[in-house]
Amino acid sequence: MERSVVLTGQHYLAEKRAVVDRLLDEYLPSEKSYPNILHEAIRYSVLAGGKRIRPILALTAYEVFGGENDDIINPAACSLELVHTYSLIHDDLPCMDDDDLRRGIPTLHKKYNEAVAVLAGDALHDLAFELIARSGSAEVVSELAQAIGTFGMLGGQMADIEAEGKENSIEQIEFIHKRKTGALIRACVRIGAILAGADKPTLNSISLYGEKIGLAFQIIDDILDIEGDEKKLGKIVGSDCKNDKATYPGTAGLEQARQVGNQLIDEAIEIAEQFNIKKNHFVDIARFIGQRDS
Amino acid sequence: MERSVVLTGQHYLAEKRAVVDRLLDEYLPSEKSYPNILHEAIRYSVLAGGKRIRPILALTAYEVFGGENDDIINPAACSLELVHTYSLIHDDLPCMDDDDLRRGIPTLHKKYNEAVAVLAGDALHDLAFELIARSGSAEVVSELAQAIGTFGMLGGQMADIEAEGKENSIEQIEFIHKRKTGALIRACVRIGAILAGADKPTLNSISLYGEKIGLAFQIIDDILDIEGDEKKLGKIVGSDCKNDKATYPGTAGLEQARQVGNQLIDEAIEIAEQFNIKKNHFVDIARFIGQRDS
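The joint structure predicted for all components is written out below.
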């Protein structure tokens, strides 16, 4: 299936992004309340922008599968962006990737100091669970915790560190990518679907869709770190190479990485098209991920 | 009320401690599973010993108020020890208190490195929410998240850092202690009581009991950092003084700190004695906290 050159569904994504930005601003504690510096730091990191793809995935899954209660899905969806931001803050620390720039502004430990960055990451990690618990569902709390624990995201981050400077097979790269990035993205669609009361076969299909776009997302991230535009990305390109990171193009070459990324997006669209629903925004999101340049 | 010279309820506490140790060992991922180093680090920190006072408080509240399902309370109780350990690991980091010894063994960043310590702390923080979600109650997830967030424990840690090297009033010290240590201890008894289905007046009383022993616990911690036995404590004494920390005896003097600690314990016992229950282990626990030397 040929993908359109024009970005489809851009209007939908822009609209949802605005909703998420407004909600995040509402849910985050005011910088006027104590501990002010920590609340300032949290707001600095979360409100610096971003594609908001994780909450949008949860909102989309919830709506597509018939959910109708904003009070349930809104905090749960936003919790996913907080988790993502916490992981970036801790990942950027000097003892981890030691990055200076993120979303076009200094990383948190550069703007403040390491202690504030550690605590602000912890605070977002914690606030994410406070928000998702507002859904009233212990099941999705568990879903999130498992996706970002040692058998998910944190395991991927550890594997990522251990793979630095080594020869890595495609299987090893996929092992890392599926955990580091894929597990949370898969959880986003599952959490939306579970809260909407989706049945088991639907949950299985949407999980597979999440896995495909999750892996594609990270492969495209690796590609953008080589040939992306620093201004659009808001971070310095070439950091993977500098840190001798395990990347898909680093092992398979740019051309094959592009092919695998495209194929995963096509497969995700194929799964999404099987859902018998009116406005299939899952197709739009998969296309957006396949064509993103930031 | 005169406190007995002999530690009362020691048998109860030792028995519960053994139960908690066994459960923690069971709940923590095996070091044979990937990421092995992270699982090793987690087990190293959690299984190094400790009084297990937080899970014991939750178990006690649950039992005392009529809870009968181990599958609900056991993971919830253990989650509280994981949260405590995560906070110690991050607190010990070089950018925070920079401590080398904890529970008689090297701190995690000394034993491994800083990256492992950051990720192991994050992993325990996360696993705590996975465990407490097994209770099936989103309400207690929310209770925990709020107790350890920026308006609770994390706010206390930030305040603690900001107070270093300054003249602090008793009010400021209490502000820090209530958040840094008190909020989680209060949440322990509340979580046990909520899961047991305690009514509102009971919840209010047990919260007050938790606040009293929580503040007493930290005041006694400050005192032990001055006149405690390093061997019993398993950490180097005098670190508060070295780091110019805001402490109760530092501001009020040792004698007044002792008096306030004793008074809080007496008040907690008075509240506990109002509960119309057979075996009042809340009294034992308050006495234990008042008389502890490690």
